[in-house]
Amino acid sequence: MEKAFGAVAVLRGVDLSVRQGEIHALLGENGAGKSTLMRILLGAESADRCRMKLAGEPYAPAAPGAAQRAGVVMVPQERTLCPHMTVLENVVLGLEPARAGFVRRGAARAIAERALGLVTGVGRRIPLDVRAGSLSVADQQLVEIARALAQGGAAADASSQHGPSAKVLVLDEPTASLGQDDAARLFTRVHALKAAGLAVVLVTHFLGDVRAHADRYTVLRDGKVQGEGDPKVTPAEQIVREMLGRELEAARDEPRQAPRAGERREESVVLDVEALGGLERPRSATFVLRRGEVLGIAGLVGSGRTELLRMIAGLDARGKGTVRVRAERGVGLLSEDRGGEGLMLARSIAENVTLSRRGTFVSRPGALLADGARWIAELSIKASGPAQAAGELSGGNQQKVQLARLLREDYDVLLIDEPTRGIDIASKAQVLALVRELAQRGKGIVLVSSQLDELVSTCDRIAVLRRGELGAARPASEWTEETLLLEASS
Q1: What is the pLDDT of residue 181?
Q2: DSSP string covering 47-59
Q3: Residue ranges of the chain with per-residue pLDDT less than 70
Q4: Within 13 Å and on the Cβ side, how many CA atoms surround 119?
Q5: CATH topology classification for 2-244
Q6: Which end of the chain lies in a sparser environment, N or C, as judged by fewer CB atoms within 10 Å?
Q7: Domain segments of the chain: what residues?
Q8: How far apart are CA 447 and CA 146, in angstroms?
Q9: Distance between CA 210 and CA 198 in Å, rounded?
Q10: How many Å apart are CA 172 and CA 151, to the nearest integer?
Q11: 266-489: which CATH topology?
């Protein structure tokens, strides 16, 4: 299979075979080509060159509906249930059996009961008439799978008791928001579907899940297959090496910089987070942040890193725990969603820099432009001037505008979420150098990044958020990219 977007080759000669009645893990870092491969399989994207077979017959879905009718379905990582609708209504959504324009409730219940029976097993029942939003996260995941199976053919055979009619089920990070007990129960049902003859493609970063439950695995890197085999006999270090493309490194022996003045004292703590949990994720996070320190938070996509920062900043509701800010000038957040939350792209650089506190600038536009020009010079923002629209800047310079707004407010604690996402290499180096400089000025910084090398090179300590639980922070000198990935995916 081959696929390119313009001059960028995303899939380059990928071969993948998934057998009936097996769980096949598809692994790879972000950008490896997994999503594009699955979109082609599901009919949401067309390949440039490809030959696919399903149950021995040629398979080339022109749209997702065609893939579903052929029995190929997917449960995405983010839940797609309508929380205000009942379980019954969610399972048969789009499949409602009707006569003369009216839904046949009895037939709809039969479809939903069969689909749910496949994923819950004997002796366990999810009520059909409760609202989906009232269920636990784990049960919502089961309802998602039941709906996918119904879309893949269970609806056409509601009276059958011989297993799912679907042929291939793709599960995208199914345990990302589940605790270990719920994840174990989910895989019990996945194994039951496998035993009934379903082929399951497991897209995940959790190597522990892969080694425990997958029959085979395939690793993609840079659009090519870089490894495959039996994960139960393949060392985890080898799988990580296939994903990253290099040999594992031993933890660095050289010490990090000496603790900054006052860092050992209790009064240097500017942020104290204890047993903090969200309504969904993370489940629990405890740490302290000291003045002049960069604390890195590592974790897989969906582990709750962004949610943790948003709760500390007061943007998301807390389910439990406490946050104590021991800093006079408070907390500022740099959002990972630069275009949606961080900036008003149609407005000027000067307006964006002063958004948090406009003061007399409303009546003195000249002063507003002068302040914007000061920050353009301070952070070396490449722009025609403070009146230029933020949306006209490069990604790296947009990120500097976000940082300028935080610096103008002079917050003592900075929560920085994915600061180098979507920017070029030179801009990344500048932004990370600025983060280190801010720590040297005495700011306390919590840094979330999917780029593990950035965490290792920039942070003083790093903690890993795994399955919703934040582990103890350890000196960055004790981590490598590989050990971080192993810890996050175990």
Answers
A1: 74
A2: -SB---EETTEE-
A3: 30-31, 122-123, 154-165, 176-177, 179-180, 246-267, 357-363, 422-426
A4: 24
A5: Rossmann fold (3.40.50)
A6: C
A7: 2-244, 266-489
A8: 38
A9: 17
A10: 17
A11: Rossmann fold (3.40.50)
